[in-house]
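Help wanted!
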Amino acid sequence: MPAYQRLTRQSIDLWPEFMAELYDHSGSVNVNYDRKGGLVLCLGEKAFEERRALNAQLAEQLRNSDNLDQDLATEMLDRRQLQSLMPNLRLGSEIVGASYCSSDGHANPLYLLAALHAAVRRLGGELLSEHRVETIRRNDGSFVVETEQRHFRASRVVIAAGISSGKLAKQVGLEAPIRPQRGQILVTERVQPLLPLPCSGLRQTTEGTIMIGATHEDVGEDSSTTTEASISLAAKAVRIAPDLAQLRLVRHWSGLRIMSPDGFPIYTESEEFPGAFVVTCHSGVTLAAVHAHVIAASIVRGTFSSDTGPFSHRRFHVNAAA
Amino acid sequence: MIYDVAVVGCGPSGMAAAVKLKNFGLSVLLVDEQPAPGGQIWRGIERNASIMSSASLSALGADYQAGMSSVREFRAANVDYLPSTQVWQIEGDWTLFLTSAGRARRISARAVLLATGAQERPAPFAGWTLPGVMTVGAAQILMKSGDMLPKGRIWIAGSGPLPLLYATQLLKRGKSISGYLDTSPGLDFSAIGKLVGGWRNVPQLIKGIGWQWGMRRKNLLHWKVQGLAAQGNERLEHISWMENSELKSAAADVLLVHEGVVPRIHETLALGCEHRWNDAQRYLAPALSKMRETSRIGLFVAGDAGGIGGWVAAEASGEIAAIGIAARLGAISDVDGIIRQAHLRQRQARALALRPFLDAVYPPPRHDIEGDVMVCRCEEVTASTVKTAADYSGPDMNAVKAATRCGMGPCQGRQCGYTVQSIISKASGQSPEKLGFYNIRPPFKPVTLGELALMEAGNMPN
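Answered by r_m:
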């Protein structure tokens, strides 16, 4: 979806400004952002050629769809070039090379969440935990949001409730066909810097732990972990970098991605109840800057539908009819 | 092979259960982290009984020596036994993932008994991370497993029977102690009121008083101590405390601290068992049936892991759990008769009779943990950072963990969980019971990526 590539690109460009603003509003929470690029490692010649072809195809799509003067800036690196980019990591024997994308960045999602929490409160917003929203209804020209403890009245309501978004969206005349997709991830003990760039699901945090991700499983709302997954993730990591075998696993967890039928975000406003919005996606870190600067601004200005057209929930009805 | 029962932990309750399960004709595997049987209380007992002088052995006390007969009985039962082995994950109905000597593997069992014991309650204070400060439990492990005793000016600070026992053990070994700081609020009327029940277990009570008396005679005791702090540049040099509203200080080389023990609950939390909050001792313990089954069918808990009771109660609970498991697996039918015959309920009640008294005399510390005091040693998070995170991200253990990394290190929150809970509770007014605990993630114990990778299909046999 070219619109999604454009949106991602836009968010990547907005991130430095967004981060600076967030740093001020949150009372100096550092989200460990940097943008040195990212790698997709290729195990075997076949994988290398396939990746090269895919990159060319994506670049072609983007060129045809609009006149962006910058492409996604990917290039293929051979094993020697790759090794010089990551001098502290002994590469597995199967690694032939990698695809390098210079625009890829990295931030700590947990610190981003903490910073957003802090910023909302410091800007005078209110955060209520353990208030599960049961119903949203229209009453006397405004919305009433009901939790077990309290009722709230507002002129606009944004539904960004993860897996529960679909259920709440129905109450304001919107279809948000969200499904959960489980991702499991491993976290190792802290070590010296080994991975200067995120690569193929492996990334090293500022603290020194290495994260190894991730599975893609359709198992409903089951967010438990399986040792089967930790075994295959560990095996993948050791194939990429044999020395990781010595590292201790300290944490194995799973979460549910918020997936729409085509995997792209849903940004939409209710026709039946204007003022009710659904904003949901599974890449909330990359897209955080665009959510803060573009989506929020459109909601405030009332220009939402024209700004976010390609991401309307209506695209799913079109597909169904076709 | 599929075992009938996997028992985790080779302390008093695990051994008692394993012997009984074997006697019921069930196939039993006992897995334990330690190289030899005994758990924490009887750690190193086989070795010490054969190499220690009789004076050193008797200095460890009658409770320690009592373990010898239990260990002999366990050895005689010839249970399949894997020492020096860690259980790093348990999956339902039931697969246990183990590692020993750098090699991971899985085993299967029809039922699981967790007899994983207790851990010392984390009780951080200013300076507790300085070298020279350690817990009484850790010092006692050194005494039992290597006959190592602390050197220099030794101070013991804390509350409960264990530090008194350790101090007595040191004095009997001819070591001098510079002082003993009792941090408990002191005997009050509510505790004396509970003595009536306590008298049902006279030997225990006399033993407790004996410890205190031994200390008092030597004039080492400081009562109702508050505001303990450790100071020093590279390592411990001084300690200070408040006593009768007076600030006191002393030079110290070793400070041993202890504020009671709490059940080990990581496994039952991770497995989604229901837990109950013990408000007197401020800990979580798995909710257990009379036969010690958790809310998950086939998963049982014996000993201190199900609530602190000491070793005599632990042995009885191990036997009760064994009967419960045998009944669950259809190996026995007359459960009540077997329990009656072994006087298990009476033995348990008698062993637990002193507990309300101890709980009242030794309540968990309630002082505020504030400012720069380190809460999470693994990730170096201070009390004030935790409080700020709770203010912003809400009164929620996991939100604070995500915002601060507190509880994400190798100890998996074992050392900071209750401290964080208490800080959030005080800041928000939310009860500790409501706050609960962190989501516990596998592995229970660190395992290397190499060990995991080797378990991939085709790489190794089960």
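OP: Thanks! One thing I noticed: The interface with chain A takes residues 89, 91, 95, 97, 106, 379, 389, 391-396, 399, 402-405, 408-410, 412, 439, 441-443, 446-450, 452-453, 455-456 of chain B (CB under 8 Å).
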